[in-house]
Amino acid sequence: MAADSSSLTKLGNPTPGFPDSPDEAALESFPNPSPDRAYEIRLSYPEFSSLCPVTGQPDTASLLIAYTPADCCVETKSLKLYLQSYRSHKSFNEEITNRIADDILATCSPQKLRVVGEFSARGGIQLTVEVRHPEVS
Prior knowledge:
Shape: globular
Oligomer: single chain
Low-confidence stretches: none
Number of helices: 2
CATH superfamily of the domain at 40-133: GTP cyclohydrolase I, C-terminal domain/NADPH-dependent 7-cyano-7-deazaguanine reductase, N-terminal domain
Order of helices and strands: EEEEHHEE
Largest sheet: 4 strands, antiparallel
Helix content: 10-25%
């Protein structure tokens, strides 16, 4: 079954520039081509960057987004533009990882979602933030 891509605005179209912030970026989705099957989609983004909200210094991370789709899937070009919009965004790593999870949940309501941000060491401490939905106790 071919997925309906008529509502997608990013895929297949030129990208004039990157959004300046996640508030300006728009995640898009398309219908799940196999809604009767539970399967996991893993997306890796090893070149994530943002800015420290206190010092303005760059923070870098490797992100993993893994989800089991329900009715729709995240369109990856819109995800790429969304993640790149953090380059000039000042925010704590914990806030970023939780916001990415919240924005994906709002876009496609997956059955399960895991977002892992492995941030590069600063001051000798390496920080990893992992967000899961549904929450695991």
